[in-house]
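Predict structure. Chain length: 248.
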Amino acid sequence: MSLATGEGKVLNPGPGEGHNAVGLQVDRHGRLFVAGGWGRVVTVMDAATGAVLRTYRVGTTGTAVDHVVVTARAAWFTDAFNGLLFGVPFGPRGELPAQDGIITLPLSGDWVQGTPEQITATGISETPDKRALLVVNASAHGGTLFRVDPADGKARRVDLGGLKLPTTNGIAVRGRMLYAPRQYDLAVLRMDRAGESGRLVQEVTDPRFDAPCAVGVYGNRLYLPNSQFPLNPTPDTRYTAVAIPVPE
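Prediction complete.
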């Protein structure tokens, strides 16, 4: 899709009914990692051609694979309903694993899992020092953030100075700044390097925001797709994304 005009083409038509494409991220090898929602599938595509390179079945009954972050060592996915992360570890030259190499990582420590009907783990990113993961918990403490050790799944609540993130889905980190869309605005936080604490520095509003559900950083701009939640979409529903300068 052109960031200048919004024009694009279908990269891959998908496998059909019952499968979703929720969180997306591209790695340095030009591979697109797709969180498969209720389909419980992680798909890896060629980001240029849409060709499917690998698919992985993950989770259990009730799993919804929600968002993804690609790190130097793995792609990590959240399960919105089961207190799990799924890891796709990379080989020495970035090779993708076989199905039996997929990591299922239970979240522990301070993690608070919601009821079976509550969306809990949503957005995911790396800490500024790239040593751990930051995972949004949309239900605990009115919506907050946890720092997760990818080695053992132990989670610690991040001190956000009382800020709540009850409607935050996808997040992004660049440098020390964390960008967290909420239903009607964008929270901008400055994090410490370890991702153990952060403070709100700005709340960005824009009349074009219509329940933004994720955020991507490209160059000097942020791009936020509008979910239009709770709109019930049809095949003719028109969707938009909002581009804004990266807040300082």
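Summary: The radius of gyration is 17 Å.
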